[in-house]
């Protein structure tokens, strides 16, 4: 046994993409408090503040042991004054008074309930709150016009807000696989998002679809969606061309192939086969199915590695990869491509390993991207 008269001092590299962050978290009380403050900042549409709290939480998630004193954190990156104050509060009192009072504030609760509706973001929620709407009941009674996504989101609120299990994700994976291979034999489906990182539950299920022959994936999404619709698997779907053209994420922009990148936001109807049907509201019949949010993305094989890396997450890990690429390597990374601004050329890759190598980073497997 070690004799620790003084606590160990931790050391953590600056960028989350330089670290291995598993799901094992030795500082959950601290990271829960910081994550809640991050969530609150995001709900208040203050993304800068949100990212600062997310980065601080991610540093603590990467530590090999519980933090017992502030002095152990000396020299660690991404811990701002505010985050350190929160950490100190937790270390001294066992909880963060700021996180606790935020959690109990009416505004936080209202923002959380309203943005829980699929298709409702912080701006819409804030606007409704300004107009006296704080609950689903008030929203329904208000007669406010909802778009198609929000109508579906409200209708399937309980299902969409219940965590998805790995078993449910796998069941949906089989359905998507069947749909995809029926409309295009040889096409491939890959589970991405949190489940690829080994998470046991998720808020949705994410899939990436491709075909080993470049170009064969063109026009695939509408066919997959039609198949799913004809079989009664979809409660809602909206297919969009990728939002990447409109995104402000940077100049990484492949000249061609752009319009082939399609995304489908959907709500699946998953039969309760063998599973205990969920009891929704007390006065309702238990439904023999549940609603699950599913995202489908189609990528040409030439961009597959970038799409896979970009859709595996975590969101912070992705953000840090792009920050690393930009600031440390003068490159622009997106879910489509990696552009080297010094050499003025795109760097090709057929695997995630190659992309990490291009970026001068040690390879981090999905299960260790849980920053
Ligand atoms: P969760 O909440 O359990 O579903 O957790 P994740 O990690 O699966 O989070 P999710 O589903 O929101 O997103 C999965 C990854 O996909 C995320 O790390 C970043 C990426 N992603 C999400 N939305 C977009 C988007 O609009 N464009 C691009 N390029 N990537 C996105
Ligand atoms: Mg997900």
Ordered list of secondary-structure elements with their pairings:
Layout: H1 28-43, H2 47-61, H3 81-93, H4 97-104, H5 106-115, H6 122-130, H7 136-142, H8 148-155, H9 157-160, E1 164-165, H10 166-183, E2 188-191, H11 193-196, E3 201-202, E4 205-210, H12 220-230, E5 234-241, E6 262-271, E7 289-298, H13 304-312, H14 315-329, E8 331-333, E9 338-340, E10 345-346, H15 352-358
Parallel strand pairs: 4-7
Antiparallel strand pairs: 1-3, 2-4, 5-6, 6-7, 8-9, 9-10
The structure holds 2'-deoxyguanosine-5'-triphosphate and magnesium ion.
Residues 193-194, 202-204, 206 line the site of magnesium ion.
CATH H-tier superfamily of the largest domain = Beta Polymerase, domain 2
The number of E-state strands comes to: 10
Terminal CA distance reads: 30 Å
Radius of gyration (Å)? 22 Å
* Element order: H for helix, E for strand: HHHHHHHHHEHEHEEHEEEHHEEEH
- In total, the number of domains comes to 4
The overall pLDDT average reads 93
Bound molecules: 2'-deoxyguanosine-5'-triphosphate, magnesium ion
Secondary-structure class: alpha+beta
Number of helices: 15
Biggest beta-sheet profile: 5 strands, mixed
Shape: globular
Fraction of residues in helix: 40-55%
Q: Which percent band covers the strand fraction? A: 5-15%
Instruction: Label the CATH architecture of the largest domain.
Output: 2-Layer Sandwich
Taking pLDDT < 50 over at least 5 consecutive residues as the criterion, the unreliable ranges are 245-259
The CATH C-level class name of the largest domain? Alpha Beta
Strand order of the largest sheet: 2-4-7-6-5
CATH topology of the largest domain: Beta Polymerase, domain 2
Keywords: Magnesium, Metal-binding, Nucleotidyltransferase, Nucleus, Transferase
Protein name: DNA-directed DNA/RNA polymerase mu
Family: Belongs to the DNA polymerase type-X family.
Organism: Anabas testudineus
């Amino acid at each position: 046994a070690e004799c620790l008269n003084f606590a160990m001092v931790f050391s953590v590299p600056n960028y989350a993409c330089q670290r291995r962050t598993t799901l094992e978290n030795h500082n959950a009380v601290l990271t829960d408090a910081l994550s809640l403050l991050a969530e609150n900042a995001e709900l208040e549409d203050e993304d800068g503040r949100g990212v600062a709290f997310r980065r601080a939480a991610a540093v603590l998630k990467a530590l090999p042991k519980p933090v017992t004193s502030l002095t152990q954190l000396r020299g660690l990156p991404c811990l701002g004054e505010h985050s350190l104050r929160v950490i100190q509060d937790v270390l001294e009192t066992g909880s963060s008074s700021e996180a606790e009072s935020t959690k109990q504030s009416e505004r936080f609760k209202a923002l959380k309930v309203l943005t829980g509706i699929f298709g409702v973001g912080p701006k819409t929620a804030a606007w409704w709150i300004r107009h006296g709407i704080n609950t689903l009941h008030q929203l329904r009674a208000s007669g406010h016009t909802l778009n198609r996504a929000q109508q579906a989101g409200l209708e399937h609120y309980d299902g969409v807000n219940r965590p998805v299990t790995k078993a449910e994700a796998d069941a949906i994976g089989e359905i998507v696989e069947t749909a995809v291979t029926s409309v295009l034999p040889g096409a491939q489906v890959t589970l991405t998002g949190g489940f690829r990182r080994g998470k046991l539950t998720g808020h949705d299920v994410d899939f990436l679809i491709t075909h080993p022959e470049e170009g064969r994936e063109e026009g695939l999404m509408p066919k997959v969606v039609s198949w799913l619709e004809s079989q009664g698997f979809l409660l809602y779907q909206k297919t969009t061309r990728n939002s990447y053209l409109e995104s402000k994420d940077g100049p990484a922009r492949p000249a061609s192939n752009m319009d082939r990148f399609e995304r489908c936001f959907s709500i699946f109807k998953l039969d309760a086969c063998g599973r205990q049907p969920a009891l929704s509201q007390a006065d309702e019949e238990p439904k023999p199915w549940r609603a699950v949010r599913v995202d489908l993305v189609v990528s040409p094989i030439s961009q597959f590695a970038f799409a896979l890396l970009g859709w595996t997450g975590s969101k912070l890990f992705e953000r840090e990869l792009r920050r690393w690429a930009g600031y440390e390597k003068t490159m622009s990374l997106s879910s489509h491509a990696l552009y080297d601004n010094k050499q003025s050329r795109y760097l090709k890759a057929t695997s995630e390993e190659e992309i990490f190598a291009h970026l001068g980073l040690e390879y981090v497997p999905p299960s260790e991207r849980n920053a």
